[in-house]
Amino acid sequence: MKKWRGEFDIFLLIILTSGLVGFLFDRTTVFITSALFFFSVYNIYQLKRLSEWASEKQNIDETSPPEGSGNWGAIFDSIYKLQKKQRSSSNYLKSLINKAQESSAALEVAVVMINEQGNLDWGNLASERLLGFKFPDDRNQAVTNLIRDPRFTAYFYAENYAETLQISIEGISNNVLEFQITFFGKNERLMLVRDVSQLYKLESMRKDFVGNVSHELGTPITVIKGYLENIIDNLDEVDAKWHNAFLQMEQQSNRMEAIVKDLLLLSTLETRAIPGDELSVDVPTLFREIEETAEKVMKDHKHRFSTSSPSQLKLRGSYNELYSVILNLVINAAKYSGVNNTIQLSARIGDNAVFIEVADDGIGISEEALNRLFERFYRVDKNRSREIGGTGLGLAIVKHIIEAHQQTINVRSTVDVGSTFSFILEKGKN
Fold it and tell me: Rounded to whole angstroms, how far apart are CA atoms 199 and 205?
């Protein structure tokens, strides 16, 4: 500001001086006009120098601005300082970009940047290997044209990227690829793609192994149970010291049979995404059957059991599987509730949906245990679990069945207050 005030003072001095000299020679207008002319020429000349320097775009980052004096010198100096600062920032950004590109090139995961129009912007070397992209030829091409698979197209435009997509794309790769997309910037997308073929094969092998082992164990367990039942039926003929041993063997063989059955059921659920026998399930009828079974199972526990459901309420799902889900939740509530505790099974109607809840006023579940509740063979209280029996697979089966119905099982619990298990299903047709 001071420099500009100084420049203005010089301008006034020129006007006054030329006016004074012109007054002495009786040529005031001529001298002032001449002074203004030369002053303007000087400034135009300096603007011309700045313009010529700025117009040389190819050299603007490399060459320094012209030198000058006075206020123009200050302007050129300021430009030079900004130029140095910009050059330093530019070099730093280039260094970061180079490091990012070098590091992304070393990744096994494909990193793809997609612009707001849905076109390919940039991809690392892995994207060329896994997806067949070719740069720069494929740049600005629609990503759905480059990855021609209806499943990917649906996933891309649905914009529901909370879950990943695992597919094998014919014509690109026979491997199983996992796609994960996230938004960034101004409606731009970052897509990560990795080869999960090995993990997929291992998971398939695990499922096959569990299914095959469970199937093969069925026959020897049946044979063992047959002999044990025959022995126990004639227990009076056996030495008394073996009575307790045979009874425990029967108990454990029954438990082993139950575990094998549950493992086979889990194996079946894992290989089937959607229930094949979906129909309209009558909720009051379903609840009555569960209540009858639960009362038989829990007769020694002396629980109070109640159900509530709107009349003629129907939901969409597999009757047998939903029966298994709710009965598992009810029995689980009974096992982890004290004597004379209350278990409530209820259904209510929402927007084209049915809300199912199983609530108890039992011992509750700790926050730590809630995170692992649906793991196979996980038990909240191992000592108590040994006493009450069970396979440790009930809640895992519940989770798989609900997910097969494309829904989620939810749990709310407070220690020493009780627990509530709930899920939502589509309303069925009456």
Answer: 10
What span, in angstroms and rounded, lies between the C-alpha atoms of 296 and 305? Answer: 12
> What is residue 15's predicted lDDT score, i.e. its pLDDT?
67
Residue by residue, DSSP assigns 65-79 as PPP--HHHHHHHHHH
| C-alpha of 229 from chain center | 51
Q: Which domains does the chain have, with CATH numbers?
A: 2-92 (no CATH), 107-195 (3.30.450.20), 199-270 (1.10.287.130), 279-426 (3.30.565.10)
Cα–Cα dist 418/325, whole Å: 19
The CA-atom distances, in angstroms, between 157 and each of 117, 154, 189 are 12, 5, 12
Helices (H), 192-312: 197-233, 243-270, 283-297
Structure tokens, 99: 């490091």
Which span out of 21-25, 36-40, 107-111, 122-126 was modeled with the highest average pLDDT? 122-126
128 neighbors 136 (Cβ within 8 angstroms):
no
